[in-house]
Amino acid sequence: MKTLPTWDLTPIYPGCDSKEFLSDLRIVVAESKALEESLGTDSSDLKANIERYELVLDYLENLNAYSSACLTTDTSNPLFLKAVSQVEEASLVVQHLEVLFLNYLATRKEEVAKRTSQGGDLAEYRFPLHELLQEQKHQMAPELEALASDLARSGTDAFSRLQESMGSSIHTEWDEKTDKTVVQLRSDATNADRNVRRRAFEKELALWKAYEVPFAAALNGVKGTTLTLDKMRGFTSPLDRSLFESRIDRPILDALISTLEQSIPLFRKYLKRKAELLGLPGLSFYDLFAPVGKEGSHFSYDEAHAFIVKQFSTFSEEMGAFADHAFKARWIDPESRNGKVGGAYDTVFPLARQSRILSNFDYTYSGVSTLAHELGHAWHDSVVLPKSNLKRTYPMTLAETASIFSEFLVFQGALAESSSEQRLALVEQFVQDATQVCIDILSRFYFESEVFARRPEGELSASELCSIMEEAQKRTYGDGLVEYHPYMWAAKGHYYSSDFSFYNYPYAFGQLFALGLYEKSRHAGSSFPDQYKTLLAATGSFSAREVASLVDIDLADPGFWQQGMAVIATYIEELCDAPLH
Fold it and tell me: Is the full-model pTM beyond 0.90?
């Protein structure tokens, strides 16, 4: 089998100890301190200070993305760990600057309002600056914000790194010649042999059980700190803060969550049908990702490259050319290897105007779909990168739009080229993924809500966390499963982020929003790719409600979310009508 490539990070920096990397670290610190002085000068210009502030943010984002990208491919590398620590050190200076900058804006409210009004020289900054002024209202005193930032390095950030490092490296014996990490064991969930799936699941649970104490300690540390800081900053709850950061309001979230809850019977119907298609009396958690129907198509990496470019190009030649360049320029690191984190992500380097994609490509259609998903993120990045920092930074809710839209393009292309047997496997794969984004995400939302409700009473033990997780899965999967995964709280790194709690519902938002957009594209004709690009370009400059309104969508209308769910329902019904073999 042809060796998979690794990504090329040299256009960003030659290395973590290179003079270029170290120079940019010094620039971040020096420019931050220089701008702090300027903010204290009455004669300094608002626009000039905004532009200097954005440049500092770009430098820090570039450094952080690079050091994190290096570390996620080799989580125990001391050079990469040092680089992450150096960036964190520099970020403390920037975080102090951020506090002062928000306070500076608050002293210039009238000027901000005047210059961001229609016709003003800062009109394009209307939403970002208003959002920063709202954020300023939730700031603690500067000295407390500085203390919180400093303590995070050895607290919540360290707990997050602990979960990431352990979650990618803990391993167990598979046979006499082979050890498997927990990431590799989780990958076996797609194996066609149920005995392999069951054995991998049991070994995975045993690993989580063996290391449950440090995972539980880390999660308690993150959630406890989050509750304390959110309260100090005047948020009614971590969810309140999450909605603010997602640029949505409670009516929008309620419309989304109610749609997910109403869909539970639909997905349970699918899960029971999948058990029948697999010849099982009921599904266990380790059967969720089992292939159905004819063995799915296998793709070499080159075939995945060609297929994705072809499908993207059917929608937009520009988008297809972008994906082709990403493959050829080695923007992607697809190989699964020891020490590399599991899953996949896209990261952007603003100074270089480039993105990079990490994945664990497994030569299946699912692997192709994952690449398409992350390339969608990268395409989104490329659309907003020409804008300055404050006007291109978009929230998690809108971040999943382009990725899921791209996945669906590839899915439609695969269906068009499939035989009837292959179609069954593809449709099941789509519904399988939708189940994760809608039902599993809902269980994660329930889990995190319950943890935040109970954490003020004291630390939660590993067994309590397992119990909460299993109950959350029973509320969503219900009798669609006969066996659950009580340790998903240890497996999912999203729970260990203090900067963004409820790192779950935005995925469901993105799924249904993207499917709704795709339905619009079917009726909008050749003009839609341009409308779509305009929408993506606006995601950093407006609220989610305003962005959606560009294509006449009301996010608080449950009817809109039902349109996206109706697309999924069509494929579930197709599966339920499929004959048993």
Answer: no
